[in-house]
Amino acid sequence: MILAILLWLGIGIPASIPYFRRRRFGAGLAVLPMSASLSLLAPWIVSAYTGLCTAGIWWGIESAIFSMLLGVVAELILQGQKSPAVIAKPAFPNRQSAWPVRVVIAGVFLLIVSAWNIGIGEGFTQTIPPFQWDGYATWLLVTRVIADSDFFPRHLFVPGSQWEYPILMPVTLAWFRRVGELGIHQSTLSLAFIAIAFPMATWAGLWRKIGPGWAAAAVSAPLMVPRLIFWHYGAYADGMIVMADVYAMMLAMVGIRDNDRGYLFAGSLGLAVAVATKNEGALWVVACAIGLGLYAMENKATFWQAVKKIACCVAPAIVVFLSWWGVCKMLGLANDVIANASVKNDPNLTVAGRLGMILYYFGQSFTYPAPGLGYQSFWQALLSSPIFMYLPALLLIPLLSAGNWLVRLRRTAVLISTPAIFCVGLILIYLITPKPLEWHLQTSLDRVIMVVFAAMFAMIFFARRPATQQATSADLHRREKPADRT
Amino acid sequence: MPQWAIALAEAGLLVAVGCAIAVQFEPTQKYLTDVSAQGQPRIASDDDLYAWMIPYDYDLIRKVRTEYPKGTSVLVDYKVDNTNNVTIATAGIMQRMYLTLFPDYYPKPGVDELIICAHKDVRPTDEMLSKGRLLSLVRRKVAEAGQ
Predict the structure, then answer these.
(1) By C-alpha distance, which of A153, A138, A33, A21 is closest to A88?
(2) Which of B17, B28, B101 has its CB closest to that of A230?
(3) Least buried of A57, A77, A306, A415, by fewest C-beta within 10 Å?
(4) Which chain B residues in 5-24 lie under 8 Å from chain A, judged by CB atoms?
């Protein structure tokens, strides 16, 4: 198991080397798990097109080669960075003496959460939740097929078959299974390491940028969402996609705020992970692109500068999306994006009726802690409710922002624009879904909506700029000019 | 703002976040324990689950595909006993397997359904899940929803 984890992270190292060479360890670590999983996925997509072998050590070799390619891209991007010395400067220079204390507090917190995470994973996987068998067995089925295959398993499909989602999570789990020669219990337990590696790596990238304690709280936001851990250990991909969504957005926002291409690259890898994990990731990428564009313009970028940053940020996600789409087209597979709408349901529901039903379920998702779990006290219910996540965000973001109230409200709107656009997109999707609407809402909304709460909570920590950033943000774009480089 | 206050505020925030994470575990585990106590199926070992998931019962799949025309709806369902406990848990995954592999068969109210039956004495965690123990297909007419 340890070997599988080390090799998983080791595959991502080549993509981080350009960062490490520049002594930018935090940003390099942030890239690591995302590049590792993406690199593991690449051989399977190539295998689907070409039939190339992924047996035995070949999978690892091909993944390492892809990771090196990512490293070359990172190197080119970082070479173009105009002012690394300025960007590498700590965001809180006047509070250096407090760093060790705050880092220790944040580090201890993350270690406790991680240890607990493994304990919970161990407990959950000893007895498999029966009502989750549907998704659990389906994802582990795909995991096993990949783990036991030497090629992309096209022989399993007839034209028109559904391969519902992109396959990053089962590919990652299959790596643990194949390298560690593990059973189902250990494969599922490896979900715990995904839920540790992603937050820890992101924290490493963020703690000097927004403060150690705040970064620890921000990266914990996905783990706070009601039932995220629950679904995650049910082998649903929703936990992984929420982490990828939120961490990608935070890294990209730091990249935009500090005009730092290294962080933009890290964020773009996160968005690619989101798209490769589940189709909802594509909607998030669209929402995030708009939100990041607004954030860039709020940080004094011009419209075209914002467009350029967004284009860089979503490019890997688009490549992954088109690659997967191509696989589905070539093999004649249908997925949710290329919807085979042969089953039309609820013909008697009008658009208004559908909208009413959708909003009813949205209301439930925004208020209920975790239906059916029987919380014993008010505080228990509140702490495990999404209210605990989005209400503080709506209150604290304007309070922590600087400037007059108009500016504060604008900043709040910008920061919550991504989850808001995501919600609107979801409503539109539910309006046109070919599947039975009520069934669709009952079985998917509470999982899909998790990212909204996590993202809103994480935005609290971006409301207030560090002192040095407040002083320099208006000049950030001027740094790129040669005259200012000295 | 003094540095100790900042550190304290951060620590307090982390405690709040930690509490929010922590309170979710206990009720979830309690729920799982309760469900477990109701006699829901448990998985004895990895081998049991693998035997259930892969290999698929290809003989049965072939029979479905050859004996029933394309477009016939399929309800993949196990009838093990009258309690329906096991049926609910296993039908979903089998249905999704079929929909994944054979999208031209789908469940739809109001038309024929094929019910894949196992012997009532077979427990879901052992023999029934292994190849060859899915015994028969039953075809039935299902009423339209709401009728």
Answers:
(1) A21
(2) B28
(3) A57
(4) 6-7, 9-11, 13-14, 17-24
- For residue B134, list its beta bridge partners: B118
Residues paired with residue B116 on neighbouring β-strands, in sequence order: B137
Nearest-Cα distance to chain A for B37, in Å, is 12
CA pair distance A85, A114, nearest whole angstrom: 33
Instruction: For residue B118, give the 3-state DSSP assignment.
Output: strand
Record the tokens describing residue A122, joined without a space. Answer: 């161990």
B 42-101 residues inside an 8 A Cβ radius of A: 42-43, 46, 49-50, 52-54, 89-90, 92-93, 96-97, 99-101
pLDDT, tens digit only, all 486 positions of chain A: 788 889 999 999 999 999 999 989 999 999 999 999 999 999 999 998 898 888 888 999 999 999 999 999 999 999 877 654 444 455 554 455 567 878 888 889 999 988 888 887 776 666 544 444 455 656 766 777 788 778 887 766 655 555 667 889 989 988 988 887 666 667 777 888 899 999 999 999 999 888 888 899 999 999 888 778 778 877 788 999 999 999 999 999 999 998 889 999 999 999 999 999 988 999 999 999 999 999 999 988 899 999 999 999 999 999 999 998 888 888 777 665 544 444 455 666 788 888 999 999 999 888 876 555 556 677 777 777 888 889 999 998 998 888 889 999 999 999 999 999 999 999 998 888 777 788 788 878 888 999 999 999 999 999 876 544 444 444 444 444 444 444
Per the CB < 8 Å rule, is B10 touching A106? yes
**How far apart (Å, rounded) are the C-alpha atoms in residues A443 and A445?**
6
Task: Please judge whether A109 and B14 are an interchain contact, meaning their C-beta atoms are less than 8 angstroms apart.
Answer: yes
Return the residue of A nearest to B53 by Cα: A141
Backbone angles phi, psi at A102, to 5 degrees: -70, -35
- Inter-residue contact A37 to A205 (CB < 8 Å): no
Please say whether the beta carbons of B112 and B35 come within 8 A.
Answer: no
Shortest distance, CA B136 to any CA of chain A (angstroms): 23
